[in-house]
Design a protein that fits this description.
Elements (H helix, E strand, L loop, with lengths): L2 E7 L16 E2 L2 E2 H6 L1 H5 L3 E6 L3 H11 L4 E4 L6 H6 L11 E6 L7 H10 L5 E7 L8 E5 L2 E6 L6 H4 L3 E10 H8 L16 H7 L4 E6 L10 H21 L3 E2 L12 E2 L4 E2 L4 E2 L4 E2 L4 E2 L4 E2 L3 E2 L4 E2 L3 E3 L3 E3 L4 E4 L1 E4 L1 E3 L4 E4 L2 E3 L1 E3 L4 E2 L4 E3 L9 E3 L4 E2 L4 E3 L2 E3 L4 E2 L4 E2 L8 E2 L11 H18 L1
Parallel strand pairs: 1-4, 1-6, 4-5, 7-11, 12-14, 13-16, 14-17, 15-18, 16-19, 17-20, 18-21, 19-22, 20-23, 21-24, 22-25, 23-26, 24-27, 25-28, 26-29, 28-31, 29-32, 30-33, 31-34, 32-35, 33-36, 35-37
Antiparallel strand pairs: 2-3, 6-10, 7-10, 8-9
This protein binds uridine-diphosphate-N-acetylglucosamine and calcium ion (CA).
Uridine-diphosphate-N-acetylglucosamine binds next to strand 1, helix 4 and strand 10.
């Protein structure tokens, strides 16, 4: 059965107390809505529709940057979750398959749970995801009759007896596309909030003799984020799970509670991560690599047995081949570092290519930016870049070439050549002692006034 995903993300998120739309707040290094969009892969969705409203342009831009195939539709006025789903009707016209509705602020639904819902769809027209809430609070309640879901009642509209129900609505629903839009035509807004509730499709379906059921999951999966304390709690929950997962996957975390992961972090077996390391989005680390303390990594790839840090910063596009070594206080951006190459200390390497087995001396800088444009530095294999070399890009240093310490290299260096760029050293015998004495006596005179 082909599937389309609709992610609702138009709500204002007033309780975040923020200028940023709620779904753009980050969880595990990516915007909140990206967690729901990730379900599209699980479901192998043919189409993904994101319904945006408040801050729609910003959400649209981020969503398309992440996945150009996402169809973004706008809900100009937020008239309720049912009204929000209806905004996807036009773009899904003629779609023959199931629709899965997810909320952009509910990030933790597991793939297995969605699969269970799909199984239940074989016997029922509508499947709703429910959960037993420890504190049901303001969640909608699922009114069941055996396996049959009779209706969903919002807290505001519920009778005292219905408020006693602890099986709550997660918001996630699965139903045939044509049916869901058709049912929504019969949903009104005469309720406590004056909104078009998506939840009302269940009652409409029952009246038409169709069937609905609920699948239950753990409350941790349906955690919805409405405020910053909830966001912080969700982040903590994500990190706790990611750390356990990494340990199970054969990664050594010396101090797990001090390491932070992103949604898409990939660490190979026998990777060692020392304390206080942050994995921003887009990091892959191959088997046997070591990430030492206080390193910050994003958008980078570390080859097998490579090592970075302590205090290393790898920015997007940093690619380390196997056995490459990046030491302390080194920043690397958009650069390929060859096999066994070493950048041990205090360097900036940006927009560069460093060949295999090349050694970059302490304090080397690729001067990649001229104030307007960025330029590349290319260094060959087995080259030796002396400490404090300034490489003025665009520039090329050949295989087995050398630069002398302190050189400012603005011209290409051929293979095997040594480039020296510094003024000649002059020695003045005894002058230092004389100078010291002069300076000291001047200080004494000054002291006497
Ligand atoms: C909704 C459910 C409730 C459920 C709870 C779970 C309805 C009527 N109620 O309530 O049964 O227990 O979620 O968290 O569905 N949105 C839009 N456009 C709108 C309104 C909402 O896109 O016009 C989006 C929001 O951005 C959010 C999601 O839909 O991602 C849920 O909306 P929200 O207002 O948070 O619904 P709740 O009142 O929490
Ligand atoms: Ca909510």
């Amino acid at each position: 059965m082909p599937t389309a995903l609709i992610v609702l993300a138009a709500g204002q998120g007033t309780r975040m107390n923020s200028d940023l739309p709620k779904v753009l707040h980050k969880l595990a290094g990516v915007p909140l809505f990206a967690h729901a969009l990730a379900a599209a892969r699980t479901l192998d969705a043919e189409k993904t529709v994101l319904v945006v409203g408040h801050g729609g342009d910003a959400v649209r831009a981020e969503a398309l940057a992440m996945d150009p195939d996402v169809i973004v539709v706008e809900q100009k006025e937020q008239l309720g979750t049912g009204h929000a789903v209806l905004q996807a009707r036009a773009v899904l016209a003629g779609f023959e398959g199931d629709v899965v509705v997810l909320y952009g602020d509910t990030p933790f639904v597991r793939p297995e749970t969605l699969e269970e819902m799909a199984k239940a769809r074989a016997k029922h027209d509508i499947v709703v995801l429910g959960f037993k809430a420890a504190d049901p609070g303001r969640y909608g309640r699922l009114v069941m009759d055996g396996p049959n879901l009779e209706r969903i009642v919002e807290f505001k509209d519920a009778t005292p007896a219905e408020r006693e129900i602890t099986l709550c609505n997660s918001g996630i629903k699965m139903a045939p596309a044509g049916l869901i839009f058709d049912l929504l035509d019969d949903v009104g807004n005469t309720n406590a909030s004056g909104e078009y509730y998506l939840t009302d499709i269940v009652e409409v379906a029952q009246k038409r003799g169709l069937s609905a059921t609920a699948v239950s999951c753990d409350e941790t999966e349906t955690l919805g984020i409405n405020s910053r304390p909830e966001l912080a709690k969700a982040e903590a929950a994500f990190q706790a799970r990611a750390r356990l997962q990494a340990l199970d996957d054969g990664v050594t975390l010396v101090a797990p509670d001090t390491v932070f992961f992103s949604l898409d972090t990939v660490l190979g077996r026998d990777v060692i991560v020392e304390p206080n390391v942050i994995f921003g989005p887009g990091v892959t680390v191959e088997t046997g690599a070591t990430v030492r303390a206080f390193s910050h990594l994003e958008g980078c790839h570390l080859g097998g047995r490579s090592g970075v840090g302590p205090f290393a910063r790898l920015r997007p596009g940093a690619e380390l081949a196997n056995d490459a070594h990046v030491g302390n206080f080194v920043e690397i951006k958009n650069s390929q570092i060859g096999e066994g190459a070493k950048i041990g200390h205090l360097s900036y390497i940006g927009d560069a290519e460093i060949g295999d087995e090349t050694n970059i001396g302490a304090g080397t800088v690729t001067c990649n930016y001229d104030g307007v444009g960025k330029h590349r530095t290319v260094i060959g294999k087995r080259a030796f870049i002396g400490s404090d070399t300034m490489l003025i890009a665009p520039v090329t240093v050949g295989d087995e070439a050398m630069t002398a310490s302190g050189s400012v290299i603005s011209q290409d260096v051929p293979d095997g050549a040594l480039a020296i760029e510094r003024s000649e050293q002059v020695i003045k015998p005894g002058l230092a002692r004389k100078l010291f004495e002069k300076l000291k006596s001047a200080k004494v005179l000054k002291g006497k006034g």
